[in-house]
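Input record (one chain):
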Amino acid sequence: MLSLPSFDNRRLIFHASRQTLRKAEMARLAVHEWLNQHDLELEEWKSKTAFELGISISELEQKLLARHGGNKQTVK
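The corresponding structure, as predicted from the sequence alone:
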């Protein structure tokens, strides 16, 4: 079985982490672009949903962020 020297292992890990960061940045940019393109639709959805729930838009946003941030608070 071949074994790589410690230096080569560190290089492989370094390059893998760079690839991961690059992919994460590409995904972040794609999501950011999509959000910008659909901003009006998202605002309309937030207004409609908040109205249906009887809460303010800022309360809805807080509940959504808490829900996806790991907090146990949920949208009713």
